[in-house]
Specification:
The protein is α+β, with helices and mostly antiparallel strands. It has ten helices and 39 strands. The strands form eight sheets. It has a twelve-stranded mixed β-sheet. Strands 8, 9, 30, 31, 34, 35 and 36 form a seven-stranded mixed β-sheet that branches. It has a seven-stranded mixed β-sheet with strand order 22-23-20-19-25-26-27. β16 (about 245-250) and β17 (about 250) form a beta hairpin. The radius of gyration is 29 Å and the shape is elongated. The two termini are about 45 Å apart. The model is unreliable at about 1-15 (pLDDT under 50). This is 6-hydroxynicotinate reductase.
């Protein structure tokens, strides 16, 4: 092992004088409060916590008269050995004694850009007047860096849910309910997916107390990748879980469509030509008819004489052939022939071969016109079945995607800088990378710091709640040391990575007592030295 006489973080840094000039708590609100209790300042609720008990959020506890953060702070490494300890206590008051041994960050770890401190479990800056609990100096590619780490308390936040399905879930703007309470709404559908907007400040604080509690509970479960059961007014019942297939009305979805009906007709037109005389791809959005479609015309396919229900958009493309539902192609039909009004005499001919399929290939039937131009179902030829199977092969697995969307307000920015607007400007100038639990966060254009992140790229159990109610989520701001000083950062509270690994947070009040090592998600870039994801 390589020995170190000093950190490879910021050279010559001493640990900040703990609490110098910054009181860690307010005078007690109630002089009658038991001396055995501690008052938690980590959120506006200000719980009075007895010895050995936790506060209302289950995140802070009274341990021997000291307020502590119950969960460990999560540290990321590029790789974690299988024999690494799951939890390692910090060297600080109230932490469990650690056996004498080499620290788990000894050796070459501090020589390279190998450790990133996340906001998960780090504690918060509330009530906004004090620096973030971790302001860590390190090096990336030989450059002195600073990462400001905290847990943010978010009221202005929501989850955007992308559900890969053609099924009708509910009308746009329909209420979404969790345990009977309205917690969001159906929003604009996207290509191959239905979209929900769940949570938000109006549901957290603008309704009844129960609505706020249920909204916070739902949001915490979604963010922590747990399944939730919801219902949509006038629509479906759902089980939604990040990274898993949605369950719609008790049926697990399998496929996300390859395209709309028109797109599917065009994509597979050359394969259908010669083995079918007409192909109809049923779709709630745009139903495609091959011989009328431009793709069929380019392949010189003769018209079949089919007459479709619905509203003709352009040749071979039909809107509103049926109502939305959970049948063929996201419509309410079980019999695909119900969308055919008839056949044009003199154009349609007996023996015409007709394939009707859905946009995922999960529904498909083969017909042949009899002498009265009536479609008669027949066994599907193998060469046609192979094309239908190929449609299915080109459909991606149906998944639920859960995106956290939050606005970084005063407490977050004040924990970074004495002049918070300079942080906002530095981010928009691409000087500061914003991450959530080490996962890249997209920063929306316009004013403020509005971030969006895929919860699947964050550590498990990254989200918590406070009973105000609000959501607790990790956030980190990484930048060059020089840029941090220029934006009015709390440079007096910057301490080295080695010191952070040894002691933890700079403050004593509400600090985490241990650290947990995790390997960074393979999908995530290493946070240090990266520009922000700006819109």
């Amino acid at each position: 092992m390589t020995e170190h006489t000093k950190t490879d973080g910021l050279p010559g840094m001493d640990m900040p004088v703990i609490g110098a000039g910054i009181p860690e708590r307010a005078p007690l609100r109630n002089e009658k409060m038991s001396a055995a209790k501690v008052e938690c300042n980590a959120c506006p609720v200000l719980c009075q916590i007895s010895e050995g008990r936790t506060g209302a959020c289950d995140r802070y506890a009274n341990r021997a008269g000291t307020l502590v953060r119950v969960d460990p702070v999560v540290l990321l490494r590029r790789a974690v050995a299988q024999d690494s300890a799951a939890l390692v206590p910090f060297s600080r008051p109230a932490a469990e004694a650690q056996d004498a041994q080499d620290p788990d960050w000894n050796g070459d770890l501090l020589l390279a850009d190998e450790v990133f401190v996340t906001g998960v479990g780090s504690s918060t800056t509330y009530p906004d007047y004090k620096p973030a609990p971790f302001i860590v100096g390190s090096k990336a590619n030989g450059v002195d860096m600073v990462t400001v780490v905290t847990e943010g308390i978010f009221s202005y936040c929501s989850f955007k849910i992308k559900i890969d399905t053609d099924r009708f879930l509910g009308a746009e703007q329909a209420n979404v309910r969790y345990k009977g309470e309205v917690v969001g709404h159906v929003t604009t559908a996207e290509y191959g997916s239905q979209m929900l907007s769940l949570g938000g400040v109006h549901h957290l604080t603008g309704g009844s107390k129960k609505e706020g509690r249920m909204t916070a509970e739902l949001m915490q479960l979604l963010g922590n990748k747990q399944p939730v059961s919801i219902t949509i007014d006038g629509g479906a019942s759902l089980v939604v879980q990040a990274g898993k297939a949605p369950i719609v009305n008790g049926v697990e979805e399998q496929r996300m469509r390859v395209g709309c009906g028109s797109a599917a007709v065009g994509i597979f037109a050359r394969q259908f030509a010669g083995v079918a005389d007409e192909v109809v791809v049923v779709d709630d959005h745009i139903t495609g008819v091959l011989t009328e479609h431009q793709a069929g015309r380019c392949l010189d396919m003769p018209k079949s004489g089919i007459e479709m229900r619905g509203r003709k958009s352009t040749p071979g493309r039909y809107f509103q052939v049926a109502n939305p539902g959970d049948g063929w192609g996201g419509t309410d039909i079980a019999d695909p022939l119900s969308i055919i009004e008839g056949w044009e005499a003199g154009v349609a001919k007996p023996g015409l071969r007709l394939l009707m399929t859905s946009t995922t290939g999960e529904h498909a039937q083969w017909y042949v016109l009899d002498d009265e131009l009536k479609p008669i179902e027949q066994p599907m030829p193998d060469e046609v079945r192979r094309i239908v199977q190929r449609i299915g092969e080109n459909c991606e697995p149906s998944l639920c995607t859960v995106l956290f969307l939050g606005g970084a307000g005063g407490s977050l920015r004040a924990g970074v800088s004495e002049n918070p607007v300079l942080l906002t400007r530095a981010i928009k100038k691409a000087l500061v990378n914003v991450t959530c639990g080490g996962a890249p966060a997209y920063v929306w254009p316009g004013g403020g710091i509005t971030v969006m992140v895929d919860v699947m790229r964050m550590p498990d159990n990254s989200f918590g709640t406070v009973p105000t109610p609000a959501i607790v989520a990790p956030i980190e701001f990484s930048m060059r040391l020089d840029d941090y000083a220029a934006l009015g950062g709390h440079t007096g509270h910057v301490f080295s990575l080695e010191q952070a690994l040894a002691r933890g947070a700079w403050q004593d009040d509400g600090a985490p007592l241990s650290r947990q090592w995790l390997a960074i998600d393979d999908a995530n870039p290493w946070p240090l030295g990266q520009p922000p994801m700006l819109g």
